[in-house]
Amino acid sequence: MISDQLRVEVQEWIDNDPDKETAKQLSDWLKEGNSKELERCFSGFLQFGTAGLRGPIGPGPSCMNRAVVSRTATGIVEFMKKNHLTSVVIGRDARHGSDQFSQDSAEIFSGAGIKTYVLPRALPTPVLAFAIDKLKVDVGIMVTASHNPATDNGYKVYLGGVVAGVNYNGSQIIPPVDTEISNLIAQANKNPPRSQDFQTVNESVIDDYISSVAALASTPNNLKVVYTPLHGVGAETFIEVFKRAKFASPILVSEQVNPDPNFPTTPFPNPEEPGSMDMALEYAKKNKADVVIANDPDADRCAMAIVNPDGLWQVLRGDEIGVLIGDYLIKKSSSSNKAIANSLVSSSLLGKIANKHGLKFEETLTGFKWISKIDNLLFGYEEALGYCVDQKNVNDKDGISAALILVQIVNELKANGQSVFDYLEKLGNEYGFHRTDQISIRVTNLNEIDELLKKVTTTPPQTLLSNALKSYENLSESKVMPTVGVRLNYDNGIRVIIRPSGTEPKLKCYIEVVSSTKNEAENLISQIKQALTKVLS
Fold this sequence. Notes:
Strand content: 15-25%
Distance between the termini: 35 Å
Largest sheet: 7 strands, mixed
Helix content: 25-40%
Number of helices: 17
Radius of gyration: 23 Å
């Protein structure tokens, strides 16, 4: 049974929907009396999350569609006018709807008199972040759902200069800007003026991005690198960067090299997901490769796999990559005025390394919108495979520049008869073996996340494998970094952080242990993971 209120709301949406297909879908559901689908699509306007919108493609205010994107663009226009911002650049990935969402946004921005630039084709998110600074624009928009499933799309918002007292410098928005924009979206004109008076970004800007990344390489490189963009948009740019840096051409995973919004070989096109890199690993075995690199679909994240001491291909964890790059860049840097940063759910090891070298270290909230606000950042990372190695050019995570640095590290180690595992072993012997892992619980009903969080907040486990709880922190009450979640510290260097994902319907539990030997750390974290899984079940 469809309530009268819902019927009126749906009809009003249909009357103002610029997309005939989604309007027809809603009309059909009204005629069929399909209250279940209508209630799902009208459960509130899709909210700003990690620096913008992200959600399933579909009709109505609760999904990603042309009407939602148009109202979002209109709300951002009003925000720009209030803050005297006059220019924008828009990028897009190759997902379903991205091209049309980009077109709608460009027409609305230009229709409002905003100087509007659009990237010439589907390109990596870091190219958009680079273009904000290169073009000296006030706002950047990236139409992407990053590593989400094929059913989703999203809309990231960046600012170029100082807004509300924050120097954004081409980084993603943070509170209170997101809330202000959200409020303006709710009041947005449903039929704003449109114009096609916008410019396509010149190829020279993309070429400048490629040159800036290639310049990070210190020497030519002949390693055999297997590369997959996981059906995303990274390959074209990645290949050209390697060529410009005088690196050997990568061996491409042909089944995944071209953009495909259906992600046919990877239901969850996230290099963190078990199995997502299996095809690339098979290529590596056949080609006797030195290293495997994977980007996520918008190429702002980077994963790596190498052969371990047992002769087996092993995908490194995000914290291992973060510490590897961080220690390498710290030792290469001659400046003592640079900062190092990582998110609070990442390993504590990089902070210890930074402190030993006399560098400023910052722990931030999760998300690169926070890491990118650290001034003079030499290197920043989050365990979810996000790395910033060149803040001056891209003030965001960048999976392509991170890949270049990783391949360079592997090459230098190989030239000295060493491996990445030798490097990490040396760090473990010096600082203690820091082992991290996580439990990820995917839900269909977001209320399940609230219930699980409430469970550990009200009755946190007092012991884990006989290790007593030393301290408990409700992160939402933190005066330094308030966020939803809890942090639990146990005896013997065990740390547990439980929080909801900012980008997917998941509850995440981040575990870290510190031990004197690698085997001890591996065994302990495996046991802790099993114990916590029982607690959260």
